[in-house]
Hints:
Elements: H1 4-28, H2 40-58, H3 62-88, H4 95-125, H5 134-137, H6 140-152
Helix pairs in contact: 1-2, 1-4, 2-3, 3-4
Amino acid sequence: xxxxxxxxxxxxxxxxxxxxxxxxxxxxxxxxxxxxxxxxxxxxxxxxxxxxxxxxxxxxxxxxxxxxxxxxxxxxxxxxxxxxxxxxxxxxxxxxxxxxxxxxxxxxxxxxxxxxxxxxxxxxxxxxxxxxxxxxxxxxxxxxxxxxxxxxxxxxxx
Length: 158
């Protein structure tokens, strides 16, 4: 992860994961929370799944980003779809429902951003540019000078 954007996305994943832990705990305690989980059991499973996926997302594994997108898309997509259908049917929704839609939209957008970031990072990692080492490893003039010098230093053994 050489880009600041990749670091920020990973940091935002961890922040959103911590937010979901707070939502799950508050939902289990039946406290007056800002937000209630859609399904508490699935929420807890998703929390542990994301905990397992974060190191692989950090290591830029494509499959981890896709699993992250699918898990969040499946969990939050259901709630977002039902709320959008309620808006289409011109039902009266509360401010909390709009807030839940906003959180679901953030979660799905975060999954899409992670996948795109990993795909674009994989394309750059095939031919990385590292100014600290490229002068040595990708410098043909240095190789030719080394070869010429090596040819002149032939010593005979008796």
